[in-house]
Amino acid sequence: MMIIKTLVENTAVSDQFEAEHGLSLYIETNQHKILFDLGASSVFIKNARKMKIDLAGVDLAVISHGHYDHGGGLREFLRINERAQIYLKTKAFQQHCGRKADGGIEDIGLDDSLLPNARLTLVENDLNIGSELELFGNVNGRKFMSSLNTDMLMREGRELVPDNFAHEQNLLIKEEGKTLLIAGCAHTGMVNILEHLFTQKQIIPSHIIGGFHLYSRAKKQAEEAKTVEEIGKYLHQTGLRFYTCHCTGRDSFQILKTIMGDHIQYLAAGSQIEI
Questions:
Q1: HEC assignment per residue over the chain
Q2: How confident is the model at residue 182 (pLDDT cuts 50, 70, 90)?
Q3: Engineering a disulfide at 165: which of 86, 138, 187, 253 sits with its beta carbon 3.0 to 4.6 angstroms away?
Q4: Which of 148, 136, 150 is closest to 194 using CA atoms?
């Protein structure tokens, strides 16, 4: 049985837990204690203590992509945990920026002063970690892409160009006949990530967790309802079970919930599910 506890999310199940714009999940499997994303700050540590989770015992961490709200807690994690290897894409420390509501540009990347570090494994291609875990990226489909991605930029030389999300990776966990897919923001599109699994890997996950990037915090703007509806119809017809959070946004979630019913639930800081 896999146990997933939400350490960081934009909302919380109660006032007992802190919320912030970010994501961090603690996962226990038969073989591993995993941290998937580290939130924007040290909030994940505070909430872990309240949930009686010993983060020093985590043996493996994954940062889904090179944005601060998923890897901002890296320095603090390295301080409190001396054993876990942390897996990121090779371009995770490239400079990433976001367009603000007033048209200005802000740095939303990771702290590259942490490089080099032997605890960090930079992943170029798909990677199997034992028999239970697999990291994959390089998703090329473009169905139902979020229009909010246009506010995401990266630096190439002296130029700021549209982010191609080559720094994004997803995690597969296989245990006892179940396959769990975990995504951070699914900037490449949850539909495209699933189709990549279906066609390129011949894998059908039983459960999916992740943000869908259907809300812009900077602009306080949700994705167009029509696009969200199309995503919801596609996901519902798969018959799979989804747990979403973070950058999906409450308005978009309500549209998805109307279409998908019990096949989609929302995770908040302090929540726990078992798969």
A1: CCEEEEEECCCECCCCCCCCCCCEEEEECCCCEEEECCCCCCHHHHHHHHCCCCHHHCCEEECCCCCHHHHCCHHHHHHHCCCCEEEEECCCCCCEEEECCCCCEEECCCCHHHCCCCCEEEECCCEEECCCEEEECCCCCCCCCCHHHHHEEEEECCEEEECCCCCCCEEEEEECCEEEEECCCCCCCHHHHHHHHHHHHCCCCCEEEECCCCEECCCCEECCHHHHHHHHHHHHHHCCEEEECHHHCHHHHHHHHHHHHHHEEECCECCEEEC
A2: very high
A3: 187
A4: 136
The model carries a pTM of 0.97
In one letter, which amino acid is 47?
A: N
pLDDT at 218: 87
Provide mean pLDDT across the span 43-53: 98
The pLDDT-based confidence of 269 (bands split at 50, 70, 90) is very high
Contacts 24+ apart (CB under 8 A), 160-167: 160/97, 160/105, 163/96, 163/187, 165/65, 166/89, 166/91, 166/137, 166/138, 167/65, 167/66, 167/88, 167/89, 167/90, 167/91, 167/92, 167/94, 167/96
Contact in structure between 192 and 132 (CB atoms under 8 Å): no
The rounded percent of the chain whose pLDDT value lies above 90 is: 96
State the CATH number of the domain containing residue 231: 3.60.15.10
Q: Which domain holds residue 167?
A: 3-274
